[in-house]
Every structure is written in C-alpha cells, then in structure tokens.
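Lecture 7 notes: from sequence to structure.

We start with a single chain of 531 residues. Read the sequence below before looking at the structure.
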Amino acid sequence: MKRLRLILILLLISASSFAADLQLRFMPGFPLLFNSQLKSVICPSVSFDVVPITVRGRDSIFFGLGASMMPLTATGLDPFNEFDFSLNVGYEFMVSDRFSVDLEALAGIWMTGDVSVPGSTKKIPATSGLSWGGRASGYFNLFPELSLGGFIEYRDFPDGNNSFMSKLSFGAAVRYNFTRGLFNSSALDVVYSDLEPIFVEPIFPVFYSRYEDHPFGSITFMNDEKNDITDVKVTVMIEKYMSSPSTCATFDRIAMGEEFTVELTAFLDEAILSSLTAGIAYAEIDVEYKSLSKTLSRKVNVDLQTLGRNNMTWDDDRRAAAFVSSRDGSANFFANYVRSVVTPEMNSSTPENIQLAAAIFSALKAYGINYVLDPASSFTDMRGSAQVDFLQFPYQTLLYHGGDCDDLSILNCALLEVLGIDTAFITCPGHIFIAFDSGVPVENAASVGRCIVQDGKVWIPLEITLCQDTFALARSFGFREWEKYPEERLLIPLKSAWEEYKTVGIADSNPRLDMPAKEDILREFRANRPR
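Now the structure, written as tokens:
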C-alpha cells in the first residue's frame, strides 16, 4: 500500500512538471447483456487518466487505464465475477464553462475465474479474451477538479470465434482531477515576451511614496483555464519593505485565453530610507481569482534591485527635487541661524529675498563649503538600462563641507525654501544650478538686473559652484549659463517638481554642525550684500 501511494505521488509530481493533468473517474453502471444467458445488476468501473494535450484552447485529448468488475449469475452456476482491463483514448469537448462531453474508444482484455456448478465438483475452467468498445460521457463541472455526470457504454467480449457476451451500460460518473485538487494548481500562465515576462525597474528609496500610484514594473498573464475567471485581484508583497500586500489591480472577468497586463505598484514603508547601499529584495506577485466557484491563486516571485537612498537617475531632471527638504534638520538650523544673524543688517532698499539669498551664500562661504568635482560616482543599474548617480541630502553636504553641482543645488534650494523663498533648478547639458524668486513683481523685473521671467515670477539664476567667490559673480555666471543654451535649458520650479516627486525627510538629518562665528557671517554678508 505504501509503495502504491509513493508511485501515485511520483506520478502526480511528474504530471505537474510536464503540464499534464492526472484524473480518476469512478463509474458505477447498470449493464444490459446481449448474446448471453448471463445476468448482472451492477458493474462498477474506474479509469485512471492522463491529460497531456490541449486542443482549441480548452478541449483535450486524454489517455487512460481502466478496470471494471461485473458480478454475473446464470442458471445452474454459482455466481462469479468477470474482470475487464482496458486502455482507452478519448476526446473531451467543452460545450461551455460548466458542461463537457467525452467520447472515447476502449480496448483491453477480460477474464473470469473457474466457475463452480452447484451440487457438483465439476467446474467450468477460467476463460479470457480481448474486449473492445466505446463510451460517451457528459459532465457538469462543479469545480476545476470535480465533475459529476453520466455515461453510456457499449462493450463486446469475444471468445475465440464467438462472442462471450456484449453489453450496453449506463450510469453515473464522478471525475476528480488530482493535479488541480491536491496541488491547488492554477492554469494562469505568465506570458513570455522576448524572454522577459516581467519588466521591473530598480527601486529608489527616495521615491518610496511614489510607487503607491506609479508602477515600478509590469507583468502579463494569460488565462489558460478552460473557462472564464472572475473576481481577479493582483497583489504585490515586498516583505523587506512592506507590512502587508498592496492591491495593484482588479478585474471583474477575464475571458478564457485572454491576456491581461498588470502594472506593479506597492505601498512601501518609510523604513526603506534606511537602505544605504544597493541590494536585492524579493517580491511576491499573487493573482487570486475564482474559477468555477473555486478560489485559486497564482504566485510569481521576482527579484528586485533596491538602490541606496542617495541614488537617482537623470532621465527626469525633476527627480532631484525629492532630495530638497525643508524638513532637513541641519538645513533648518543653518538657514534660521543665518537669518537671525543678518536680519539687523538688512536694509529696506533691496528686496528681502535677494538679501536673504546673499546671506545664505555668504554663510556657506564662511562655513567653508566647497565645490567638489564628482569623481564619476554613477553606475549602471542591474538591467543595464540607466546610469545611477549619487546625490547628497542637504545635511550630508553640510556635514561633508562640499559636493558637486547637484549636491550644492539641493543644499541651496533647501536653505532658501526654509526661509520661505521659492526656488527652481536650472538644467542644461551636463550641469545643474539654481534660481530663486526675487519677490519682485513681473512689471518691476528690470529693477533687479539680469533675471528670468517665468510662471509669473522674476527668477534670479545663481551659479552655486562658485561658492568661494562672490554673490555678484555667481549671479553673473548663472545668467551667462542660462543664455548659453537657449534651446536645451530648463527652469524647473521646485513646487511643480514636488507635485510629481515628493520630498522626503531623513530621520538622521540633524548632525551637530560647527557653525561659523557671527562675525565671519556678517563680514561675508556685508561684502556680498547687493547695494
């Protein structure tokens, strides 16, 4: 018995591996016998089938091994049994999602044991022969694995040149699919396209909130069930960075043979911002659906490349806005400290925003901030599709006393935003610097000198890489850079960029800063303050 059980398990595993279903049919029948003096009242039979071939989407060809036993009686003989073993091949025609018809041919051998004669020691010797026939069945499919129905069957049992008997049987039928039942197997398949069925982009921690409604990948499935499926729900779970699965798609009904593509989204925890380096996370995509009233699921595991919280690609320059945070602890402290120092020195003849921008520039110079050329810190992502750059948050640039053009742009924008001054990125080929809102009405733009009028504001460009020069020179170079690229320049207001790429706050953004002396800040401010 244990050996038989082991063989059955191995067969099931093998069938599952080769996409073939294994099923068992139990068919109690009531035979009508011809060409014979024999009688019978019931004929139970079973068939163990393998279903390896699908035709026309949901029809199938199957092969089976059948066995039946028919108790027989006859006048002048003790009751005896006839056994029949057959090989059968059949075609299942799916009339609808719920109804199917099977047509099959059967061929095998039959045999009886010795038959005793009542009141005598005489016995009729055992006999055997070949058998052939056909069967037609109809089924109502309750679940993907369980069907109920009925059958009608004709069998002939030749005995040499004569017919031992012929029979016409009809009865009930129960069919159970082991593959679908025991393994809860789903017939939902991933569609392979260019050998890449699942498209996923690297996960950038700084954009973690964006992935809730902006997909980081997609996957396409095909409904290979033999029927339509309903109540389809697709969820994504990244255990390392999520507390519960996120639903990224639902469908009321998917037709048999229909493909459907799911855009992958996820509600990620803020804890992902603690990721400092690139790594691998494992995502589970779960498609849950109903097939013939039974809930099934198809799970797909995906490897995701997760990058460090300082990583970003430049395929959209607005992305850098996510690093500019007025909630940055160091930026808050630095900007408010500087304002408190220079406020008594400010005059009423120069726009306040310009004076505050000059104060921040002066304080950073006194602080010892430096422009540091980026030593080619970018690298290619796991897919090889984009160059990943390393951008510093404001507190890091203050802590390190320097950074490249994007780091200094992020820092200066953050400091000015803390003071309530609107800022913008200016991008041109291979470079980024900033502009700030002068606070001057558009009609008075000429009063502030070289400026950019856009979106109802008068913007003053500032080349922040000249952080150890003068405020006037930084303004002059900024406007020169703007004019140098009339076709390839962009001015991106931070407020509009934040609508697409939300800013993030870092929990450890408040390191202790050694601020410059007030006298040093005032000395630089007096030298740089616009007259």
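The two ends are 101 Å apart (CA to CA). Keep this in mind for problem set 3.
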